[in-house]
Amino acid sequence: MGNESHYDHVVLISLDTLRSDALSVHPNPLWPHDHKDVHPVRTTVLDDLARGGAYFPNMISAAPYTAAAHGAIFTGQYPLHNGIHEFYNGSLRAPSVFTYGRRAGRSTILKTDFPIILGPQLGFTRDVDTYLVEDDDAFIEAVIDSESTLACAHFGGVHVPYGFHNLTFGGDDYRQKVAELTAGLPESLPFNDLLVESHRNPEDTELLVSYKRATAYMHSQGEYDRLMQLYLEGVEYFLENRFAPFVERLRERMAAAGKRMLLAVFADHGEAFDERTNGHFNSMAEPVLRVPLIISGDGVEPGMHTNRIRTIDVAPTVLDLAGIRTAATGVFDGRSLAAVARGTEALDGDAPAIAESYNAELNDFVAYQKRQLSGSTPGPLQHFLVGHAAYLDDKRVVRLTRHYSDWFLKTTPTDMSWVERFDADGIPHRDPDADGSELFAMLDDYRTALREPDQVPFTDEIRGQLRSLGYSV
Questions:
Q1: Which residues of the chain form CATH 3.40.720.10?
Q2: Vertex 440 angle, CA 438 and 446, to 5°
Q3: What confidence score (pLDDT) does residue 188 get?
Q4: Contact present, 23 and 47 (Cβ < 8 Å)
Q5: Sulfatase N-terminal domain spans which residues (predicted)?
Q6: Residue 236 pLDDT > 80, yes or no?
């Protein structure tokens, strides 16, 4: 890495579940090809950030769910290499951006909206000095009060319930939306998704479950356009009501303190709706895996870079731009794009990429989480490979090994695969005549790193941290 930079603060912002083409500034959105009765929404704050920074609209996530996706982002390593590849298992073992930030003498700060996922249970608080939950103002204060930082603010406002996250941020608008969505629903529905990512009081929990039941029913009725419109409207609501004010406060406080900031905004995965996909957790759909990256700060050259990059490129790029040294060369699976962000090099060609989804049966996961949050030892949670994808040049291959049915409550083994080719606008089309042998070999070679995952520990330290967050354990 380079010499120590002039950035006082390095701030990462994760917008959970933001597909790349949700941004109005996106050059070639995918959703108009899949949804004919959907209209775009305002994404002004992100559009302005994209136009004023190095904007990468074609970044491929390593996994379609929060834990493994963030593990890859924070470490620059693929999930099978860093310790977290399943939906909820293992522990982050590889050095992270927080590790390198702390070694460089910076205060490290993590604020998350999903403490059950991005928390101590999976090792995400390791090398984090200040850990905050759902407190945007406290995050800004913690950054400004420190001489120098490497900090990350994670937002769940684009995740279901789209736009709101919870009652604290959604209020009566959230209550009204749930009432609107649930009006006229059948009295009895089989859907029973009781999973939560954060602490919720009884009313908040009931609202979330009702919201998810409504969207599951819409999906069962094939109302994919309505779901997509609901998602996009949630993006707009979150950006206007929570994110834009946050960015404005952060920039104002930074300017008042006379500090210089490197800002990197990204997503962990997107959201999609079709016969196989209701959201993201099990999907290899291109809109789920393609996410945005925006980098801004002094010395960053504004420009759009449309060639394919990977989420594993985020950590080496940010650390390089910030002048934060890493322990050794070869520590990352990704590559630094710092020269591209500075405008001294062009982004040449599309990077090869891999994505995989490992999951558990929904009812098993719900029972596991109930045991965990009650304070008892949750025991093992069996996961299985759902599917994976590989990218090389203008092609990608998708191989599915599990099929979800019955309102996504059950899975059955399957063996489906196909090759897609990207056109000049980056739109994937199935190509039955394309040779996918190199891409299948990429998947097979990657899976040689698979090893038995560590079970999620439930130590006294973790129990104490959960109590401090309001859980009864």
A1: 9-159+225-342
A2: 100
A3: 83
A4: yes
A5: 9-324
A6: yes
Residue 395, SS3 per DSSP: strand
**What local confidence, expressed as pLDDT, does residue 301 receive?**
98
pLDDT in tens, 159-209: 999 999 999 999 999 999 999 999 989 988 876 677 788 888 899 999 999
Contact 100, 324 (CB under 8 A): yes
- Note whether 78 and 307 are within 8 A (CB): no
Distance (Å, rounded) from C-alpha 99 to C-alpha 189? Answer: 46
pLDDT tens, 263-306?
A: 999 999 999 999 989 999 889 999 999 999 999 999 999 999 99
Fold of 9-159+225-342: Alkaline Phosphatase, subunit A (3.40.720)
Structure token digits, residue 74 = 């924070």
317, HSE (Cβ side, Cα atoms, 13 Å): 29
Burial class (CB in 10 A: 0-12, 13-18, 19+), 413: exposed
Whose structure tokens read 């819409």?
218
Provide the percentage of residues in the chain whose pLDDT is more than 90. 81
pLDDT at 153 over 80: yes
Pairwise CA distance, residues 465 & 471, whole Å: 9
- CA 392 to chain centroid: 22
| Number of helices (H), then strands (E), in the chain | 16, 16
Residue with tokens 């990059």: 309
| Residue 144 burial (10 A CB sphere; 0-12, 13-18, 19+) | middle
Neighbours of 304 (CB within 10 A): 16
Rounded to 5°, angle at Cα 243 from 242 and 247: 125
| Ramachandran angles phi, psi of 99, nearest 5° | -60, -50
Query: What is the predicted pLDDT for the residue at 252?
Result: 98
Residue positions counted in the chain = 473
Q: How far apart are CA 121 and CA 371, in angstroms?
A: 14
Q: Residue 211: name the closest of 232, 199, 196, 224 by CA.
A: 196
Helix (H, G, I), strand (E, B) or coil at 155: strand
